[in-house]
Write a structure and sequence with these properties.
about 280 residues, alpha+beta, three-stranded antiparallel β-sheet
């Protein structure tokens, strides 16, 4: 119906194969690729201790989010999404994640959605994350706007909920979803992240939602000590963090994904590379 959206710009300069893929793979669950990685923790642990000595609270999740934001800024094809057979490019980088006030059984979580330009340093990103988490946990008063929207939807009589959700999905498909709903929706995001490390669980492969525009779902798991081969074929024990990624393959090819993930590994291994703001958001080889 319409091609203009508030959360993305229609990509027109596509190769024939790129144009046909969304018509062959019509759903995100048809298009899911799964990637698994173990990130060495030594560089992250050193950086976390260094920042703690300076009074800055940074953890593994801050580093992973900052590394992903930087990767999307430098590799913008990963910041795309497919809607109704068309590919759109986001102009900003959005991240969604769930936080719980406590880790006690039955604790009700709330979803946080943050927006970044892509040029932020890890310190700026960590500060934004910490402020958002603090606001939704220790300083929370009432519901946030996303929770209010969910409560309003769930207050509708049950037989009508399905109709309302289907109507919203139809509006989204035809690019007439109100911007206010897209802004509040955690499912309209560049990437979603789940922190299973905080629960002491291994990483998983989380599906990308069919509702919304999420094309990347990241899961971080608990650390493990594993044997690795070092210099001179010496076997040593190394602490590593589990990582799982589920991605929509339709908006860029496998080579692009591989080059991008190689860049992410570099940042995860040495988070200090993220301390400088990104001056030019140009793609790197």
């Amino acid at each position: 119906m319409f091609t203009k959206r508030p959360d993305g710009v229609l990509v027109k300069d596509l190769e024939p194969m790129e144009m046909i893929m969304p018509y062959i793979l019509k759903k995100r669950y048809d298009s899911m690729n799964m990637y698994e990685e173990m990130f060495p923790c030594e560089g992250m642990d050193e950086y976390i201790r260094e920042k703690l000595d300076q009074g800055v609270r940074i953890g593994y999740m801050h580093i992973l989010i900052a590394a992903t934001v930087r990767m999307l800024a430098l590799r913008p094809l990963l910041n795309r999404f497919v809607m109704n057979g068309r590919i759109y490019q986001r102009e900003k980088i959005w991240v969604s994640f769930v936080v719980h006030p406590t880790l006690k059984d039955g604790s009700v979580g709330t979803t946080i959605k943050l927006c970044f330009n892509g040029d932020e340093s890890i310190l700026e990103i960590a500060e934004a994350i910490n402020k958002a988490i603090e606001k939704e946990t220790t300083k929370r008063v009432g519901e946030n706007d996303t929770d209010k929207l969910m409560r309003i939807l769930m207050s509708i009589p049950k037989p009508i909920i399905k109709l309302v959700v289907n109507t919203l999905m139809w509006m989204d498909k035809h690019n007439i979803m109100p911007k206010a709903i897209i802004d509040l929706s955690p499912f309209h995001t560049s990437f979603f992240i789940t922190n299973l490390k905080s629960l002491g669980l291994n990483h998983i492969f989380h599906h990308v939602y069919e509702f919304g525009t999420t094309g990347l779902f990241l899961a971080m798991g608990k650390e493990k000590t594993v044997p690795v081969i070092g210099k001179g074929d010496e076997i040593k024990q190394e602490k590593q963090m589990g990582f799982g990624l589920v991605s929509d393959e339709r908006f860029c090819d496998g080579l692009y994904y591989a080059m991008s993930l190689r860049q992410m590994r570099k940042y995860m291994k040495n988070p200090k590379l993220l301390e400088n703001r990104l001056e030019l958001k140009l793609e790197e080889a």
